[in-house]
Write a structure and sequence with these properties.
This protein has four helices and three strands; from the N terminus they run αββαβαα. The protein has about 110 residues and is of the alpha+beta class. It has a three-stranded mixed β-sheet. Helix 2 links the parallel strand 2 and strand 3.
Length: about 110
């Protein structure tokens, strides 16, 4: 099973998701490894009444064994349905990676 499928399966099983998006951003980072850098957008009523750190902890709990390998980085944008509606579905663009070997190519 691909990393993306594994993430989706676990999050859908652990949270009632109103909105779900997962972008593989590995191509934006240095090195030859793929399926290591992701951007997650998740909207769930399970996040209501929880601070952002608590929401992140919920996701880390569902993905704990994937977080060191294969996942190297996971940008999370976690919203309640009301927050998502107020944001009108806006998700910021991820910055380009300037670390590692990519920085040496400029």
């Amino acid at each position: 099973m691909s990393v993306e499928n594994e993430i989706e399966q676990r999050l859908r099983a652990g949270l009632e998701l109103v909105e779900y998006r997962l972008e593989n951003e590995s191509h934006m980072h240095s090195g030859d490894r793929m399926d290591t850098h992701f951007k997650l957008v998740a909207v769930s009523s399970a996040f209501e009444g929880k601070r952002m750190v608590q929401r992140h902890q919920m996701i880390y709990g569902l993905l704990s064994d994937l977080m060191q390998n294969p996942i190297h980085a996971l940008a999370m944008h976690l919203h309640t349905p009301e927050e998502w509606q107020a944001a009108q579905g806006f998700v910021p663009e991820s910055p380009n990676c300037m670390g590692g070997s990519k920085a040496d190519k400029h």
